[in-house]
Amino acid sequence: MINLNEKIPLVDLNDGNKMPVLGLGVYSICGDKLKRTLKSALDMGIRLIDTASFYQNEIEIGEFIRQAIRDGLIKREELFVITKIYPGAEMANPEKAIEGCLKRLNISYVDMMLLHHPDVNDIKAYLTMEKYVNKGLIHSLGLSNYYIKEIDPFIKKVNIKPALVQNEIHIYYQEKEVVPHIQNLGIVMQAWYPFGGRGYTNNILNDKTIVKLAQKYNKTPVQIILRWHLQRNVIAIPGSSNPYHIQENLQIFDFKLNDKDMAEIALLDKNEKHDWY
Ligand SMILES: NC(=O)c1ccc[n+]([C@@H]2O[C@H](COP(=O)([O-])OP(=O)(O)OC[C@H]3O[C@@H](n4cnc5c(N)ncnc54)[C@H](OP(=O)(O)O)[C@@H]3O)[C@@H](O)[C@H]2O)c1
Protein backbone atom coordinates (compact mmCIF):
# COMPACT_ATOMS: atom_id res chain seq x y z
CA MET A 1 0.00 0.00 0.00
CA ILE A 2 1.16 3.48 -0.74
CA ASN A 3 1.80 5.64 2.29
CA LEU A 4 -1.21 7.93 2.07
CA ASN A 5 0.62 10.57 4.07
CA GLU A 6 3.34 10.72 1.46
CA LYS A 7 2.53 13.75 -0.64
CA ILE A 8 3.05 13.84 -4.37
CA PRO A 9 5.66 16.58 -4.83
CA LEU A 10 4.62 19.86 -6.41
CA VAL A 11 6.53 21.73 -9.10
CA ASP A 12 6.76 25.54 -9.15
CA LEU A 13 5.31 27.14 -12.27
CA ASN A 14 6.68 30.37 -13.77
CA ASP A 15 3.45 32.20 -12.80
CA GLY A 16 3.81 31.51 -9.08
CA ASN A 17 1.36 28.60 -9.01
CA LYS A 18 2.34 25.03 -8.15
CA MET A 19 1.14 21.74 -9.59
CA PRO A 20 1.60 18.03 -8.76
CA VAL A 21 4.37 16.23 -10.64
CA LEU A 22 2.12 13.24 -11.25
CA GLY A 23 -1.53 13.17 -12.22
CA LEU A 24 -4.17 11.10 -13.94
CA GLY A 25 -4.93 11.35 -17.66
CA VAL A 26 -8.58 10.60 -18.36
CA TYR A 27 -8.68 10.50 -22.15
CA SER A 28 -11.29 7.94 -23.28
CA ILE A 29 -12.50 7.21 -19.74
CA CYS A 30 -16.15 8.09 -19.15
CA GLY A 31 -19.38 7.10 -17.41
CA ASP A 32 -19.35 4.98 -14.24
CA LYS A 33 -15.84 3.83 -15.04
CA LEU A 34 -14.65 7.44 -14.92
CA LYS A 35 -16.32 8.10 -11.57
CA ARG A 36 -14.91 4.86 -10.08
CA THR A 37 -11.48 5.74 -11.43
CA LEU A 38 -11.58 9.28 -10.06
CA LYS A 39 -12.69 8.01 -6.63
CA SER A 40 -9.82 5.49 -6.49
CA ALA A 41 -7.36 8.10 -7.67
CA LEU A 42 -8.53 10.62 -5.09
CA ASP A 43 -8.36 8.02 -2.30
CA MET A 44 -4.81 7.18 -3.32
CA GLY A 45 -3.66 10.77 -3.28
CA ILE A 46 -3.95 11.89 -6.92
CA ARG A 47 -4.74 15.59 -7.06
CA LEU A 48 -4.10 16.39 -10.75
CA ILE A 49 -6.66 15.47 -13.42
CA ASP A 50 -5.92 16.03 -17.11
CA THR A 51 -8.94 16.40 -19.39
CA ALA A 52 -9.90 18.38 -22.51
CA SER A 53 -13.02 19.56 -24.28
CA PHE A 54 -12.14 16.91 -26.87
CA TYR A 55 -12.38 14.11 -24.27
CA GLN A 56 -16.09 14.88 -23.72
CA ASN A 57 -15.94 14.00 -20.03
CA GLU A 58 -15.69 17.46 -18.44
CA ILE A 59 -19.32 17.37 -17.23
CA GLU A 60 -18.78 14.06 -15.42
CA ILE A 61 -15.48 15.24 -13.94
CA GLY A 62 -17.14 18.42 -12.67
CA GLU A 63 -20.02 16.42 -11.14
CA PHE A 64 -17.54 14.10 -9.43
CA ILE A 65 -15.48 16.98 -8.02
CA ARG A 66 -18.51 18.88 -6.70
CA GLN A 67 -19.81 15.71 -5.02
CA ALA A 68 -16.38 14.94 -3.52
CA ILE A 69 -16.25 18.47 -2.10
CA ARG A 70 -19.79 18.14 -0.70
CA ASP A 71 -18.82 14.79 0.86
CA GLY A 72 -15.83 16.43 2.53
CA LEU A 73 -13.32 14.24 0.67
CA ILE A 74 -11.41 17.15 -0.82
CA LYS A 75 -11.27 20.92 -0.95
CA ARG A 76 -11.39 22.64 -4.33
CA GLU A 77 -8.00 24.25 -3.77
CA GLU A 78 -6.39 20.84 -3.21
CA LEU A 79 -7.20 19.76 -6.76
CA PHE A 80 -5.47 20.78 -9.97
CA VAL A 81 -7.64 20.39 -13.07
CA ILE A 82 -6.23 20.83 -16.57
CA THR A 83 -8.48 21.20 -19.58
CA LYS A 84 -7.77 22.13 -23.20
CA ILE A 85 -9.48 23.88 -26.07
CA TYR A 86 -9.34 22.34 -29.51
CA PRO A 87 -8.17 23.71 -32.89
CA GLY A 88 -10.70 24.62 -35.57
CA ALA A 89 -14.10 25.87 -34.43
CA GLU A 90 -13.12 26.19 -30.76
CA MET A 91 -10.03 28.33 -31.35
CA ALA A 92 -11.88 30.37 -33.98
CA ASN A 93 -14.38 31.32 -31.28
CA PRO A 94 -12.28 31.07 -28.13
CA GLU A 95 -14.57 32.92 -25.77
CA LYS A 96 -17.35 30.42 -26.46
CA ALA A 97 -14.91 27.49 -26.12
CA ILE A 98 -13.50 28.73 -22.80
CA GLU A 99 -16.96 29.50 -21.42
CA GLY A 100 -17.98 25.98 -22.51
CA CYS A 101 -15.15 24.37 -20.52
CA LEU A 102 -15.88 26.50 -17.45
CA LYS A 103 -19.60 25.73 -17.66
CA ARG A 104 -19.19 21.99 -18.25
CA LEU A 105 -16.69 21.60 -15.41
CA ASN A 106 -18.52 24.08 -13.15
CA ILE A 107 -15.85 24.02 -10.43
CA SER A 108 -15.45 27.81 -9.88
CA TYR A 109 -12.21 28.03 -11.87
CA VAL A 110 -9.88 25.91 -13.98
CA ASP A 111 -6.37 25.46 -12.64
CA MET A 112 -4.81 25.30 -16.07
CA MET A 113 -6.06 25.64 -19.62
CA LEU A 114 -4.01 24.52 -22.62
CA LEU A 115 -4.27 25.05 -26.33
CA HIS A 116 -4.58 21.42 -27.45
CA HIS A 117 -2.60 21.95 -30.68
CA PRO A 118 -1.13 24.73 -32.80
CA ASP A 119 -3.77 26.33 -35.03
CA VAL A 120 -4.19 29.36 -37.29
CA ASN A 121 -6.12 31.00 -34.46
CA ASP A 122 -3.92 29.89 -31.59
CA ILE A 123 -2.59 33.36 -30.69
CA LYS A 124 -6.10 34.79 -30.69
CA ALA A 125 -7.28 31.87 -28.53
CA TYR A 126 -4.37 32.26 -26.09
CA LEU A 127 -4.88 36.02 -25.75
CA THR A 128 -8.52 35.30 -24.93
CA MET A 129 -7.45 32.74 -22.29
CA GLU A 130 -5.27 35.52 -20.81
CA LYS A 131 -8.41 37.59 -20.23
CA TYR A 132 -9.85 34.73 -18.18
CA VAL A 133 -6.64 34.57 -16.14
CA ASN A 134 -7.11 38.24 -15.37
CA LYS A 135 -10.69 37.50 -14.27
CA GLY A 136 -9.43 34.67 -11.99
CA LEU A 137 -11.40 32.00 -13.87
CA ILE A 138 -8.26 30.28 -15.17
CA HIS A 139 -5.16 30.18 -12.95
CA SER A 140 -2.40 29.05 -15.34
CA LEU A 141 -1.94 28.75 -19.09
CA GLY A 142 -0.08 26.29 -21.26
CA LEU A 143 0.27 24.61 -24.63
CA SER A 144 0.17 21.10 -25.98
CA ASN A 145 1.91 19.65 -29.01
CA TYR A 146 4.21 22.63 -29.50
CA TYR A 147 7.77 22.03 -30.62
CA ILE A 148 10.74 24.39 -31.01
CA LYS A 149 9.62 25.88 -34.29
CA GLU A 150 6.18 26.70 -32.90
CA ILE A 151 7.05 27.74 -29.36
CA ASP A 152 9.73 30.33 -30.13
CA PRO A 153 7.58 32.64 -32.27
CA PHE A 154 4.52 31.94 -30.10
CA ILE A 155 5.89 33.27 -26.83
CA LYS A 156 6.93 36.54 -28.49
CA LYS A 157 3.29 37.27 -29.34
CA VAL A 158 1.63 36.65 -25.97
CA ASN A 159 1.70 38.50 -22.64
CA ILE A 160 1.64 35.59 -20.20
CA LYS A 161 4.39 33.06 -20.77
CA PRO A 162 2.96 29.52 -20.92
CA ALA A 163 3.62 27.71 -17.65
CA LEU A 164 3.54 24.23 -19.17
CA VAL A 165 3.98 22.39 -22.45
CA GLN A 166 2.35 18.94 -22.65
CA ASN A 167 3.84 16.76 -25.41
CA GLU A 168 4.26 13.13 -26.40
CA ILE A 169 7.31 11.92 -24.49
CA HIS A 170 8.34 8.37 -23.69
CA ILE A 171 11.44 6.21 -23.69
CA TYR A 172 11.20 5.64 -27.47
CA TYR A 173 10.41 9.33 -28.19
CA GLN A 174 12.48 11.33 -25.74
CA GLU A 175 12.41 14.78 -27.42
CA LYS A 176 16.04 15.30 -26.43
CA GLU A 177 16.23 18.73 -28.06
CA VAL A 178 12.71 19.94 -27.33
CA VAL A 179 12.69 19.13 -23.60
CA PRO A 180 15.78 21.19 -22.59
CA HIS A 181 14.87 23.96 -25.03
CA ILE A 182 11.43 24.44 -23.47
CA GLN A 183 12.71 23.92 -19.92
CA ASN A 184 15.34 26.63 -20.53
CA LEU A 185 12.48 29.02 -21.30
CA GLY A 186 11.28 28.45 -17.73
CA ILE A 187 8.39 26.27 -18.86
CA VAL A 188 7.55 22.93 -17.24
CA MET A 189 7.37 19.94 -19.58
CA GLN A 190 4.71 17.29 -19.10
CA ALA A 191 4.58 13.92 -20.84
CA TRP A 192 1.47 12.54 -22.46
CA TYR A 193 1.81 8.88 -23.47
CA PRO A 194 4.38 8.44 -20.67
CA PHE A 195 4.20 4.67 -21.29
CA GLY A 196 4.03 5.06 -25.07
CA GLY A 197 0.23 5.15 -25.27
CA ARG A 198 -2.38 2.43 -25.67
CA GLY A 199 -1.26 -0.25 -28.13
CA TYR A 200 2.41 0.41 -27.38
CA THR A 201 2.66 -0.09 -23.62
CA ASN A 202 3.34 -3.81 -23.98
CA ASN A 203 6.54 -3.19 -25.96
CA ILE A 204 7.72 -0.40 -23.71
CA LEU A 205 6.96 -2.17 -20.42
CA ASN A 206 8.79 -5.27 -21.69
CA ASP A 207 11.80 -3.37 -22.98
CA LYS A 208 14.86 -5.44 -21.92
CA THR A 209 16.70 -2.52 -20.34
CA ILE A 210 13.64 -1.37 -18.41
CA VAL A 211 12.92 -4.91 -17.16
CA LYS A 212 16.56 -5.29 -16.08
CA LEU A 213 16.44 -1.99 -14.17
CA ALA A 214 13.13 -2.95 -12.57
CA GLN A 215 14.80 -6.07 -11.18
CA LYS A 216 17.83 -4.09 -10.03
CA TYR A 217 15.78 -1.49 -8.10
CA ASN A 218 13.13 -3.97 -6.98
CA LYS A 219 10.52 -1.85 -8.75
CA THR A 220 8.17 -2.46 -11.70
CA PRO A 221 8.83 -1.29 -15.28
CA VAL A 222 6.21 1.50 -15.03
CA GLN A 223 7.86 2.75 -11.86
CA ILE A 224 11.29 2.83 -13.55
CA ILE A 225 9.80 4.73 -16.50
CA LEU A 226 7.93 7.28 -14.38
CA ARG A 227 11.02 7.83 -12.25
CA TRP A 228 13.05 8.44 -15.43
CA HIS A 229 10.51 11.07 -16.57
CA LEU A 230 10.61 12.86 -13.22
CA GLN A 231 14.42 12.77 -12.99
CA ARG A 232 14.49 14.57 -16.37
CA ASN A 233 12.17 17.12 -14.74
CA VAL A 234 9.39 15.95 -17.02
CA ILE A 235 6.15 15.60 -15.09
CA ALA A 236 3.61 13.02 -16.23
CA ILE A 237 -0.07 12.12 -16.53
CA PRO A 238 -0.30 8.36 -17.02
CA GLY A 239 -3.74 7.20 -18.09
CA SER A 240 -5.33 4.32 -16.22
CA SER A 241 -8.71 3.13 -15.08
CA ASN A 242 -7.24 0.29 -13.05
CA PRO A 243 -6.90 1.17 -9.33
CA TYR A 244 -3.99 -1.25 -8.90
CA HIS A 245 -2.15 0.46 -11.73
CA ILE A 246 -2.91 3.92 -10.35
CA GLN A 247 -1.50 2.85 -7.02
CA GLU A 248 1.58 1.31 -8.64
CA ASN A 249 2.18 4.52 -10.59
CA LEU A 250 2.36 6.49 -7.35
CA GLN A 251 5.01 4.36 -5.67
CA ILE A 252 7.94 6.17 -7.20
CA PHE A 253 8.99 8.65 -4.54
CA ASP A 254 11.12 6.28 -2.46
CA PHE A 255 13.98 5.50 -4.87
CA LYS A 256 16.30 7.22 -7.35
CA LEU A 257 17.83 6.00 -10.61
CA ASN A 258 21.57 6.59 -10.66
CA ASP A 259 23.22 8.64 -13.43
CA LYS A 260 24.50 5.55 -15.24
CA ASP A 261 21.03 4.03 -15.40
CA MET A 262 19.50 7.34 -16.54
CA ALA A 263 22.13 7.40 -19.31
CA GLU A 264 21.28 3.81 -20.27
CA ILE A 265 17.59 4.74 -20.65
CA ALA A 266 18.60 7.77 -22.73
CA LEU A 267 20.10 5.29 -25.24
CA LEU A 268 16.69 3.67 -25.80
CA ASP A 269 15.43 6.66 -27.79
CA LYS A 270 14.31 5.66 -31.31
CA ASN A 271 12.68 8.96 -32.26
CA GLU A 272 9.59 6.79 -32.61
CA LYS A 273 6.49 8.96 -32.40
CA HIS A 274 3.29 7.06 -31.60
CA ASP A 275 0.78 9.69 -32.67
CA TRP A 276 0.61 12.19 -35.48
CA TYR A 277 0.50 15.39 -33.40
N1 LIG B 1 -2.28 16.70 -25.16
C1 LIG B 1 -2.47 15.70 -26.00
O1 LIG B 1 -2.52 15.86 -27.24
C2 LIG B 1 -2.66 14.32 -25.45
C3 LIG B 1 -2.65 13.21 -26.32
C4 LIG B 1 -2.82 11.95 -25.76
C5 LIG B 1 -2.97 11.79 -24.39
N2 LIG B 1 -2.98 12.91 -23.59
C6 LIG B 1 -3.15 12.77 -22.12
O2 LIG B 1 -2.18 11.87 -21.63
C7 LIG B 1 -2.83 10.85 -20.87
C8 LIG B 1 -2.04 9.57 -20.94
O3 LIG B 1 -2.11 9.02 -22.24
P1 LIG B 1 -2.64 7.54 -22.49
O4 LIG B 1 -3.50 7.14 -21.35
O5 LIG B 1 -3.26 7.52 -23.82
O6 LIG B 1 -1.28 6.72 -22.57
P2 LIG B 1 -0.26 6.15 -21.46
O7 LIG B 1 -0.44 6.82 -20.15
O8 LIG B 1 1.11 6.12 -22.05
O9 LIG B 1 -0.72 4.64 -21.37
C9 LIG B 1 -1.96 4.28 -20.87
C10 LIG B 1 -2.00 2.78 -20.88
O10 LIG B 1 -1.09 2.31 -19.87
C11 LIG B 1 -1.74 1.38 -19.06
N3 LIG B 1 -1.20 1.52 -17.71
C12 LIG B 1 -1.26 2.59 -16.89
N4 LIG B 1 -0.64 2.32 -15.73
C13 LIG B 1 -0.18 1.05 -15.83
C14 LIG B 1 0.52 0.18 -14.95
N5 LIG B 1 0.87 0.57 -13.73
N6 LIG B 1 0.84 -1.06 -15.39
C15 LIG B 1 0.49 -1.48 -16.62
N7 LIG B 1 -0.20 -0.72 -17.50
C16 LIG B 1 -0.53 0.54 -17.10
C17 LIG B 1 -3.21 1.73 -19.11
O11 LIG B 1 -4.01 0.60 -18.91
P3 LIG B 1 -4.98 0.45 -17.61
O12 LIG B 1 -6.14 1.41 -17.81
O13 LIG B 1 -5.38 -0.97 -17.68
O14 LIG B 1 -4.17 0.78 -16.40
C18 LIG B 1 -3.36 2.24 -20.54
O15 LIG B 1 -3.63 1.17 -21.43
C19 LIG B 1 -4.25 10.80 -21.47
O16 LIG B 1 -5.19 10.18 -20.62
C20 LIG B 1 -4.52 12.24 -21.71
O17 LIG B 1 -4.94 12.85 -20.48
C21 LIG B 1 -2.82 14.15 -24.08
Report what the structure shows.
The protein has 277 residues and is of the alpha/beta class. The chain has a domain at 17-198 and 233-241: TIM Barrel (Alpha-Beta Barrel). Helix content is 41%, strand content 16%. It has helices spanning 31-44, 58-70, 89-92, 94-105, 122-134, 148-156, 178-184, 201-205, 208-217, 221-231, 243-250, 259-266; strands at residues 10-12, 18-20, 24-25, 48-50, 80-85, 110-115, 138-144, 164-168, 188-192, 234-236. The strands form two sheets. Strands 3-4-5-6-7-8-9-10 form an eight-stranded parallel sheet. The protein has a two-stranded antiparallel sheet with strand order 1-2. The structure holds NADP nicotinamide-adenine-dinucleotide phosphate.
User: What is the name of the CATH architecture of the domain at 17-198 and 233-241?
Assistant: Alpha-Beta Barrel
- Helical stretch tally: 12
Integer-rounded radius of gyration: 18 Å
* Order of the strands making up the biggest sheet: 3-4-5-6-7-8-9-10
Category from helices, strands and their pairing: alpha/beta
CATH homologous superfamily classification of the domain at 17-198 and 233-241: NADP-dependent oxidoreductase domain
Molecules bound to protein: NADP nicotinamide-adenine-dinucleotide phosphate
- The top level CATH class name of the domain at 17-198 and 233-241: Alpha Beta
User: How much of the polypeptide forms β-strand, as a percent range?
Assistant: 15-25%
CATH topology name of the domain at 17-198 and 233-241: TIM Barrel
H/E series: EEEHEHEHHEHEHEHEHHHEHH
Which residues sit in consecutive blocks of at least 5 with pLDDT less than 50? 1-5
Number of strands: 10
How is the biggest beta sheet arranged? 8 strands, parallel
